[in-house]
Design brief:
103 residues; alpha+beta; 48% helix; globular; binds zinc ion
């Protein structure tokens, strides 16, 4: 039940629209690989993700928390549907989130 599709998405790492390989396991997205920067976005680390969201809530970052919740709910929708002007502001927080995936 693993399949891969190639599509054009706005990368969550380099924030440019690039050719992206999306890997599905069943009906869920397991990972997305950006062909521009080769960053691999894995969707499965939800525990860490939840921790970061609660941390940001304490620090009063409402916008990135809302965005992060949208990513968790539906990563594909988030990346396809998010306009550039919206991501530009919480860019630092988004980077913080993505960097934490690699640590
Ligand atoms: Zn990228």
């Amino acid at each position: 039940m693993v399949k891969q599709i190639k599509t054009s998405l706005v990368c969550s790492w380099c924030f440019s629209e690039a050719s992206t390989i999306v890997t599905y396991v069943g009906d869920s997205i397991a990972k997305m690989e950006c062909e521009n920067c080769n960053h691999v976005f894995e969707v499965s680390r939800t525990v860490l993700h939840s921790y970061l969201i609660s941390d940001w809530e304490k620090r009063g970052f409402t916008k990135p928390v809302r965005l992060a919740r949208e990513i968790r709910k539906d990563p594909s929708h988030f990346i396809i549907g998010l306009p550039f002007r919206v991501i530009s502001k919480p860019l630092r927080m988004a980077k913080e989130l993505v960097e934490s995936y690699d640590s």
